[in-house]
Amino acid sequence: MISQEMNDRLTRTGPGSDAGAVMRRYWQPAALSDELAVPRPVVPVRLLGEDLVLFRDDSGALGLIGRACPHRGADLCYGRLEDNGLRCPFHGWHFDRTGQCVEQPGEPEGARMHERIRTASYPVVEKNGIVWAYMGPGDPPPFPDFDCFRAPDSHVFAFKGLWACNWLQAMEVGIDPAHASFLHRFLQDEDPADSYGKQFRDTAGATDIPMTRLLRDYPRPDITVEDTDYGLRLIALRHLDDGRTHVRVTNQIFPQAISIPMSREMIITQWHVPIDDERCYWYSMFTSFTGPVDKQKMRDQRLREHRLPDYAPLRNSANGYGFDPVEQARETYTGMGLDINVHDQWAVESPGPIFDRTREHLGKTDVAIIRYRRMLRAAMDAVTAGTETDLPMRGGAAQAAAIRGPISNDTIAASGGDWHAAYTAGDAERRAACTDWDASIATAAKTG
Ligand code: FES
Ligand SMILES: [Fe+2]
């Protein structure tokens, strides 16, 4: 457990907050590219407690500017998308994508007041289905050479979902390898052939053991946490009765992402992005090492569970997450259906919008959570002290280019075998078989 003061420091992300200052030193997912694929590409964005509007201008370039008109505060999300910018419908002030006011049509002819009017604006780039924003000082850092950024757009599917809780609760479920044996337990095994686009439904490693059975039968993982250039590597070992060991490698990517295996074909890289302190979006990039991703199928699967335009889940606290006691007795551990996202959503929302961590009791399996909070505290201290190059991945282009992977996979190590060698070999095999794009990480073995 931690003090109330520390809980506030770790969880608050609005302007002027310490954790928010750390997040502002990294590119943040602001919207899905899908959200802009409409006739009028103007989307409200609330990010790190700031209200913004994202739009694509006539030249095709993206702008992310303050949502309130600097004149008298009207909502620019209702702006007229015209003349290569956004025009406020109240008095016609016109803004370009840098936030500069370029015209005030109601002011006297020749007035130059507009030259002094500039609203907030942040750099944005689009990468593999996500629009990223940089809200910090100075130049944005380069993107690390992670698989989700190296793979071509055809091999990456991006989606998001709304959770009604603080981002740190969402982050912490992703670095908790023990919960998969309980929260996501299926009392029956599905046919792994029907596993496309779903997590924990494939077989484990190169075996015919369904992941569902393995997680159910071996609920006490040995968890090791290692420091890396990008954050933390988590290794969860499940020792099987026949002497073999199941090795699951997942990662924390600083400051608020995880990278985990989904199936033998795909990995998931997922950001937990504060909308404000009591709501967050998960943004996932599903990256395929085999063929192109079936985006239509994956989108349809997820749209059945979410409402547009805000990507709010249809199962939520207002309807008890669809809880069914008969299902809980017979089919799933939660009684909340087969979509593991709903299980995670219940786990992170039910402690309350900002969990009171003065009341928690962390166990041995929470080791990565403890290590992560320590890392975040060090980063907040570094930003406060002005030593920002101490932050993970803020060391420049060469450093970012050297950060590859990270390895996220499930492997089975032979009886008496070296589990480190087993997961490294399992990952190398998958990368070697990836001929559609260059997934090699040979030059970055240290960090992968
Ligand atoms: S409030 Fe926007 S132009 Fe007046
Ligand atoms: Fe989970």
Automatic annotation (TrEMBL):
InterPro entries: Cholesterol_7-desaturase, LigXa_C, Rieske_2Fe-2S, Rieske_2Fe-2S_sf. Residues 27-133 form the Rieske domain. The keyword Hydrolase does not apply. GO terms for molecular function: 2 iron, 2 sulfur cluster binding; dioxygenase activity; metal ion binding. This is Aromatic ring-hydroxylating dioxygenase subunit alpha. CDD domains: RHO_alpha_C_DMO-like, Rieske_RO_Alpha_PhDO_like. Keywords: 2Fe-2S, Dioxygenase, Iron, Iron-sulfur, Metal-binding, Oxidoreductase. It holds the Pfam family Rieske. The keyword Transferase does not apply.
